[in-house]
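Need fresh eyes. Consider my entry:
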Amino acid sequence: MIPPMAEPDAPFLEFAADIKRAIDVPVIAVGRLGDPAVAAQAVDSGKADFIALGRSLVADPLWVAKLARNEPIRRCLACNTCVDGMRGGAGISCVVNGAAGREIAFQNPAPPRNQRIAVIGAGPAGLTYASLVADYNAVTVFEKEQRPGGAFRYAGLAPMFQEVEANPASFVRYIEDMAQSCWRKNVVFEFGTDVERQPASLAPFSRIVVATGASYPFGLGTLAMGMLERGAGRWPVVSRLLKAEALRNWFYYRGRRPTGARFMPLARPGQFVTVIGDAARPGKSKEAIASAFDAALLAG
């Protein structure tokens, strides 16, 4: 069994501990040990001699190096997209690591350098882009809400994400670590800032990246998010409806409209504008984050 996000951290650790007490050879524990604190405690407690990582290294191949430097990691969601892709013959891929399975394309990255970059939107695409280019540029993220994450925070409140039962804790941890990674790289966050109402805030930047997501018509987005906040995703009838593939695909694709075109007129002459994620083309989180990788590391 490969434990999905609905399972708690380290669900098999006690089995490893039982085996370790019975034998005299090193024991390796496995299964949802991607949280560095949980992994360290598994060894420090004596329940295992080593820990094994699989999905966590797909999500962040630099997991070990970042832990050694005390840096935030890119969290695995435990959505099993990587596993399902391999089992289905499509090859490996990852929702949060847009380079997974495409490593050759990224072997000579060409991020922008020495620029002042404004990122509009602190959802997963915006946070990903900012984290990838912040080592080489001065980056400011504008977000009209008071916290990062955007609509991605609501994904865990739905009954399913990809093909597994959703767990809001997985999304919150991912967002918090992505934001921490940006802060560690001196990314400036301007929360509570609506650049459509304050377009002058974009004037100092040479590059503008629009990561404002997609919108639903007729206020359906506000209604849907409100219902999810009230726990509707776990109500039996609503849960069955939201698990239906046709309805899920409508919410991801046909039911939403890109928002990027609204922000293009805010740019001034000489500013380079890139639209990424759902702001360019509504879809699933995997597609949105992959577009952030492409724009950050391949577009130059």
Residues 168-184 form the longest helix (17 residues). The CA atoms of residues 157 and 229 lie 7 Å apart.
